[in-house]
Amino acid sequence: MSDPTAREARPQPDGSAAYTTRSSRRRAEHDTRRRGWLTFLRDVVVIVVAAVIISALIQNFLIRSFYIPSASMENTLQINDRIIVNRLQPSLSPIEHGDIVVFRDPGGWLDPNLIPAPEQNGLLSVIDQVLGFVGLTAPDSGEHLVKRVIGLPGDEVACCNTLGQLTVNGVPIDESPYVLLPAGETRASGIDFDVVVPPDSLWVMGDNRYDSADSRLNQDTPSKGFVPFSSVVGRAVVISWPIDRWTWLDDYPSVFAGVESGEP
Q1: Which of 23, 55, 72, 223 is catalytic?
Q2: Which side of the chain, N or C, has fewer Cβ within a 10 Å radius?
Q3: Is the entire prediction scored with pTM above 0.90?
Q4: Which domain holds residue 78?
């Protein structure tokens, strides 16, 4: 017995049934392709959004990129070098002597009038801020400083002894592996000083010692030249750009090998 609900395309003299079947098949194929494209686009959007979120989390909590705007760390870091910063220090991993750190202005170190303003129109500025949020650019690098850690909490840092050396807790240190001095100059600093680093703070100096507005030159600011841990963004670990300068950044433990902790 035939199914009374069944529907068949019965041949018609004008061929309309065959045309209807082909038309339905084409519509079905079109709908399938459209659903395939929509699924593909949905997956791309999900992947991009997930990548942005993951990148933002990484750059906010793990690592971040900065560029170098000045010559204060030459020859270790050159102007326009890009560096990768480990953001786990000092929150989860301690800062050590010789580390290169990036930090926010503790107050009065940077002249607001000298912070480079981005030369971009509105759209490019928004794009740069978005890329900076996910760690692909560093639009706020000019608002940060990068220096080498010389003194940790409790350390007495002084300069200079009779040989022109800098001392940490009375121990002379040989900074020749990284420090840049003017031709013919042997003193580690053109400014004499003798300080004790307070708790939760650092004493930092630039490798380009006679061209660096570091702790020595900021002793009249609210922080008295010290950098609070709360201002530290993280430790610079590698030069990432340009490619021909790719290298891990050394903290030169041998330079500070004889220095005992000054922290009580």
Answers
A1: 72
A2: N
A3: no
A4: 62-248
